[in-house]
Amino acid sequence: MSAKKTYNVTLIPGDGIGPEVSDATVEILEAAGIAFQWDRQDAGAETAARMGTALPDSVVNSIVKNHVALKGPLATPVGTGYTSANVALRKRLALYANVRPARNLPGVKTPFENVNIVVIRENSEDLYSGIEHVVVPGVVESIKIITEVACTRIARFAFDYAVLHRRKMVTAVHKANIMKLSDGLFLDCCQKVAREYPDIVYNEMIVDNCCMQLVTHPERFDVMVMENLYGDIVSDLVSGLIGGLGLTGSANIGADAIVYEAVHGTAPDIAGKGLANPTALLMSGILMLRQFGEIDAADRIESALYGVFAEGKFLTRDLGGSATTKEFVRAVISAM
Ligand code: NAI
Question: Is the per-residue pLDDT at 2 higher than 60?
Fold first, then answer.
């Protein structure tokens, strides 16, 4: 019998509830029988206070070596202070595509029943380039950068994703009626790429109409592709359709590395109390197992998780239950 494979993964627990949801996720992934060599790395606000940087080089070096990381939330000061370590990580590792699938979970009641959407967000440019300056006191300019290279790359990623996952439709989301040059370029690139995929239905939707349609007819959407800012907002909206940020996994993908992360924040209001719901990071861990080809383990965890949701006895407080993080983890593991 061949030796069992061990996966080398950088683990970034992060701030606030990060260490609690990371411990929970690691426990469940290992209980599924997969062997990991975790390289634990510190990043975020607590690290910044201690080391003077929220993203030490050792974190980036570890991911470059392992090509894969599992990351909890990192706190970022609002308005002032250092730039987001999340954004810095995406830039330094050229993680150009953010993928966030959202599908109804059994037992989690929401106003909608047929949500099965994947939001693909361009991660590297747009208003997130961070180029801002004061023109004169009281007037500030933020620059939106859109390039043909990045738009074509994300469009191709979205169509390839649709083919690989047997999806039928890609919707490009934009505001080209107002930003005729930048969003116009994005649409041109999507249209060119779409022509290479005649089996996938391609359509376009203006972002404001898209938000309205998502909260009235989410079943009309399949794969969605968009620039960075729209993707940031719309992907949270889509998570909300299935019960919130605590339930959605996410992957930031580049040519040489993938960072799987929980999309929620550090939840300072419940940090350290053992109440956090680890599902989002666990969902990201399941995406990671699928990428590794560990389909059986991924399926087993997913169906155990769905079983716990459907039974409804061990839900955490954010889902209306009273279970602690540890009780939830025990329930998932025993359902496996
Ligand atoms: P948040 O997501 O931390 O909290 C919003 C609400 O959701 C809170 O009531 C919180 O208790 C709840 N919540 C979030 N995750 C939960 C979970 N797993 N289980 C149970 N309840 C959960 O958003 P907020 O308050 O806007 O941000 C707090 C900090 O997190 C900020 O410093 C922000 O910069 C950072 N943040 C980091 C992100 C990342 O690293 N990817 C993403 C979003 C925010």
Answer: no
**Cβ–ligand 1 contact at 24 (below 6 Å):** no
CA of 265 to the centre of ligand 1 (A): 3
**Interval 120-133: pLDDT, tens:** 999 999 998 778 99
Q: Is the CB of 264 under 6 A from ligand 1?
A: yes
Domains in the chain: ranges and CATH: 1-96+242-336 (3.40.718.10), 111-240 (3.40.718.10)
Question: CA–CA distance from 197 to each of 144, 165, 204 (Å)?
Answer: 29, 14, 15
Q: List 71's β-bridge partners, or say none.
A: 12, 261
DSSP state string for 213-245 = HHTT-GGG--EEEE-HHHHHHHHHHHHHHTT-G
Whether this prediction's pTM lies above 0.70 is answered by yes
Helix (H) or strand (E) holding 252: strand 249-253
| Cβ 73 under 6 angstroms from ligand 1 | yes
Residue type, position 28, single letter: I
Burial bucket for residue 72 (CB in 10 Å: 0-12, 13-18, 19+): buried
Nearest CA to ligand 1 atom 37: 265
- Pair 74, 44: CB distance under 8 Å: yes
pLDDT tens string 35-51: 999 999 999 999 998 99
| DSSP secondary structure code for residue 263 in this structure | S
